[in-house]
């Protein structure tokens, strides 16, 4: 009995890789073996990038909070400590957003926390 190769599944698998490689330059988008390597590496980079994005945004929020806190006569670390002491449950993302969009409200938060 001859060996079955299951051409349908193989074709779909290759087609899926070449679809993902669409827009790549040269043979990366045309030749399956090269496209497969490129797509795998791109998927790896995108996975790592999603983890790095969280790190970068937290850093940005801390920078914005620190800049706004210094305009109000305190530092980031003192402000965060005071907010924890007062049990204020505002996270850094929201605090940075308030500092950026509404400086008056942020200064009220600072006054509340530091008293």
Helix content: over 70%
Task: State the order of secondary-structure elements, H for helix, E for strand.
Answer: HHHHH
CATH-defined topology: c-terminal domain of poly(a) binding protein
Classified in CATH, the superfamily is: Ribosomal protein L20, C-terminal domain
Q: Cα-atom Rg, whole angstroms? A: 26 Å
**Outline type:** rod-shaped
* Major beta sheet summary: none
- Give me the CATH architecture, please: Orthogonal Bundle
* Poorly predicted runs of 5 or more residues: none
Number of helical segments with 4 or more residues: 5
Briefly note the structural class of the backbone: mainly alpha
| Straight-line distance between termini | 86 Å
Q: How much strand?
A: under 5%
Return the CATH class: Mainly Alpha
Mean pLDDT: 94
Question: Structurally, how many domains make up the residues?
Answer: 1
Total beta strand runs: 0
Describe the structure.
With 115 residues, the chain is mostly helical. The chain has one domain (8-114): c-terminal domain of poly(a) binding protein (Orthogonal Bundle). The protein has helices at 7-20, 32-71, 76-85, 92-101, 103-114. Helix 1 crosses helix 2 (32-71), helix 2 packs across helix 4 (92-101) and helix 4 crosses helix 5 (103-114). The mean pLDDT is 94.
């Amino acid at each position: 009995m001859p060996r079955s190769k299951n051409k349908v599944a193989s074709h779909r698998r290759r087609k899926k890789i070449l679809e993902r490689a669409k827009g790549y330059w040269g043979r990366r988008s045309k030749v399956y073996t090269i496209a497969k390597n490129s797509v795998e590496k791109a998927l790896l980079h995108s996975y790592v990038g999603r983890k790095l994005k969280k790190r970068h945004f937290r850093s940005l929020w801390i920078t914005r909070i620190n800049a706004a806190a210094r305009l109000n006569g305190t530092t980031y670390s003192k402000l965060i400590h005071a907010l924890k002491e007062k049990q204020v449950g505002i996270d850094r993302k929201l605090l940075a957003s308030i500092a950026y969009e509404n400086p008056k409200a942020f200064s009220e938060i600072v006054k509340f926390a530091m008293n």
